[in-house]
């Protein structure tokens, strides 16, 4: 019999470098880019302006990425010709989530499915799910079912499932926000326990995209033993599934130190966006200045991340050789019956 995950081997390899590390660039952001435009122009963003921002990022930086993460509304219809990475990841979740006093509820982009992402020719499905183990029971149950359903669909269509988990503040928290940013004074155990839950086989997650288990401020200078322990526990929580770090828009030095720690404990790369490309957009709407900044500071920074990754991240060589092989090669053709 064929292992259910065998069909994910080729697309997973496309997300990797030749040394089997992940060096992935995110341009699927919606609210963060909306906010750049609105703040600079003192009005609501326009479709073509969002596309222009994403195009600048993709054209200038994608050649240094092993894969790129795109949304289906602004990116896919406009940016594929500007992408110079070999792997394509497509977002499934809607950025506009529902929220109650003590819970958040994720949903798909309207009229968007795993099947459509498969037909598009993507190499993986990405889902961001807000999750807190201490949220109201309805929220916890909804998020578990939501993620498990997507995992089953990805298994059906042989698409790798990349799950991004983010903890969040409740509405009565002094630091409450609906913005896509790191939770201030996050609870480390909330981050770790969330990963433990979704590392269970029933969710069929192939890659975790994880936030730092500690506030980014704790990554700026001297790293404490407590912070080291948090990253070690995060790694153990993944149940040996491949994992990468997200940047949450943290400072460049903090994210670099975050990656150093993550790689020490077994991360295989990064999937990052704002920390790489946000700084040049301080000059927006001066497109020429933004373009120059992406070509210099952002480009140099992603090269720095890639050097760190090649030399320190955990390679997936063993993972691929052990986890994706046919036990009885001579029976492969006779046994294979396609999707079920």
CATH class categorisation? Alpha Beta
Overall pLDDT confidence = 94
Unreliable parts: none
Helix % is: 40-55%
Number of strands: 10
What portion of the residues fall into strands of 2 or more residues?
Answer: 5-15%
- End-to-end gap: 13 Å
Summary of the model, kept short:
The protein has 340 residues and is α/β, with parallel strands linked by helices. Helix content is 41%, strand content 13%. It has one domain (6-335): TIM Barrel (Alpha-Beta Barrel).
What does this structure look like?
The chain is an alpha/beta fold. It has one domain (6-335): Alpha-Beta Barrel (TIM Barrel), CATH 3.20.20. Helices cover 41% and strands 13% of the residues. The chain has 13 helices and ten strands. It has helices at 9-14, 31-41, 47-61, 76-79, 114-120, 137-156, 188-198, 225-237, 252-264, 274-277, 287-312, 317-323, 332-335, and strands at residues 22-26, 67-70, 87-91, 98-100, 103-105, 124-130, 161-166, 207-210, 243-245, 269-272. The strands form two sheets. It has an eight-stranded parallel sheet. A two-stranded antiparallel ribbon has the order 4-5. β2 (67-70), α4 and β3 (87-91) form a beta-alpha-beta unit. α7 runs parallel beside α8. The two termini are 13 Å apart.
């Amino acid at each position: 019999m064929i292992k259910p995950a065998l069909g994910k081997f080729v697309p997973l390899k496309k997300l990797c470098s030749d040394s089997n590390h992940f060096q992935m660039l995110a341009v699927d952001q919606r609210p963060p880019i909306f906010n750049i435009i609105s703040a600079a122009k003192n009005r609501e963003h326009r479709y073509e302006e969002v596309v222009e921002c994403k195009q600048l990022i993709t054209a200038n930086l994608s050649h240094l990425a092993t894969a790129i993460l795109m949304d289906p509304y602004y990116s896919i219809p406009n940016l594929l010709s500007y992408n110079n990475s070999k792997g394509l990841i497509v977002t499934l979740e809607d950025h506009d989530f529902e929220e109650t006093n003590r819970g958040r509820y994720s949903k798909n982009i309207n009229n968007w499915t795993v099947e459509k992402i498969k037909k598009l020719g993507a190499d993986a499905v990405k889902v961001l799910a807000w999750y807190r183990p201490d949220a109201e029971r309805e929220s916890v149950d909804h998020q578990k079912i939501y993620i498990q359903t997507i995992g089953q669909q990805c298994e059906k269509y042989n698409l790798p499932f990349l799950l991004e988990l983010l903890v969040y503040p409740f509405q009565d928290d002094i630091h409450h926000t609906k913005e896509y940013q790191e939770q201030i004074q996050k609870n480390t155990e909330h981050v770790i326990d969330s990963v433990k839950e979704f590392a269970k086989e029933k969710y069929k997650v192939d890659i975790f995209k994880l936030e730092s288990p500690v506030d980014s401020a704790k990554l700026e200078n001297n790293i404490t033993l407590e912070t080291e322990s948090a990253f070690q526990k995060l790694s153990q929580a993944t149940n040996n599934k491949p994992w990468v770090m997200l940047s949450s828009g943290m400072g460049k030095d903090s994210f670099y130190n975050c990656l150093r720690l993550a790689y020490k404990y077994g991360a295989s790369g990064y999937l990052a966006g704002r920390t790489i490309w946000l700084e040049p957009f301080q000059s927006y709407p001066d497109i020429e200045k933004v373009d120059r900044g992406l070509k210099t500071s952002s480009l140099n920074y992603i090269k720095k991340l890639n050097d760190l990754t090649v030399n320190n991240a955990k390679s997936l060589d063993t993972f691929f050789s052990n986890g994706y092989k046919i036990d009885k090669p001579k029976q492969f053709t006779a046994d294979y019956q396609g999707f079920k």
